Amino acid sequence: MIKSFKGAHIWILGASSGIGLALTHELSNAGAILALSSRRRPELNDINEALGGQHLVVPCDASIPASIEEASDRIEQSFPRIDSAIYMAGYYNPTKFEDFELEELRKTIDINLTGAFVFAHHVLKVLRKQKAGQIVLCASVAGFRGLPNGQPYSATKAGMINMAESLRIENKNPAIDIKVINPGFVRTPMTDKNPFKMPMIIEPEDAAKAIATGLRGNTFEIHFPKKFTYFLKLIKILPGSVYFKLFKNQ
């Protein structure tokens, strides 16, 4: 966990929109020194300028492993240490299983799952050298169980949760903190694609505050809003026969 954000060196991959952008503002306002990553440098430059220009801009395409490695190397060379590295990159295109296109499948897996693996792999090397630090992966409550019209997004988020759990177990250094973020519905350009009413939806600024609180806590999972996520955790433990009956007409 991070005791204080003031002076902490934090890498956010996926800093230019949605929850990642809100988290960028939240942590910058709390005094963190950030490395801002996403695909488009002009957007990152504008964000950095709006925050006072004190942060490091490191363009990175989460769908390209070599780009993540290059960004990781640059940040390691530029920062005295990495106190936390947060993977907020994500891609979502709601599709029925029978209708998905191969290119969309590849893009979703590349960004949501392969990118998270590569990110954690390179950051872990740095943290082991430092013998301390934090890796945080943003998954989703959509990864708790298979949802109608949720593929391949739900599958990649389930994979990310599983990966974070494995990483947490394999890590033997208590000074290296592994966390996963499982948000419910947050009003972002991604959720704007949903054609249905989203229960208990919250604003990205509220999500950022919840994440910031969780980064300073001892728990592995950061999930919010609690009323919604605890309801889905209950659904998660239902027997398959009950679960499938519940959703058969969706």
Query: What can be said about the biggest beta sheet?
Result: 7 strands, parallel
Shape: globular
Kindly report how far apart the N and C termini lie.
40 Å
Low-confidence stretches: none
Average pLDDT figure: 94
Q: SS-based structural class?
A: alpha/beta
Q: State the share of residues found in helices, binned by percent.
A: 40-55%
Biggest sheet strand line-up? 3-2-1-4-5-6-7
Report the total helices: 8
- Give helix and strand order, one letter per element, not per position: EHEHEHEHEHEHEHH
Strand content: 5-15%
The number of distinct β-strands equals 7
The rounded Rg comes to 18 Å
What does this 3D model show about the protein?
The structure is a single chain. This protein is of the alpha/beta class and 250 residues long. It has eight helices and seven strands. It has helices at residues 18-29, 41-50, 65-78, 102-130, 153-170, 204-215, 226-236, 240-247, and strands at 9-13, 33-37, 56-57, 84-87, 133-138, 176-183, 221-224. A seven-stranded parallel β-sheet has the order 3-2-1-4-5-6-7, sandwiched between helices. α3 (65-78) runs parallel beside α4 (102-130). The N and C termini lie far apart (40 Å).
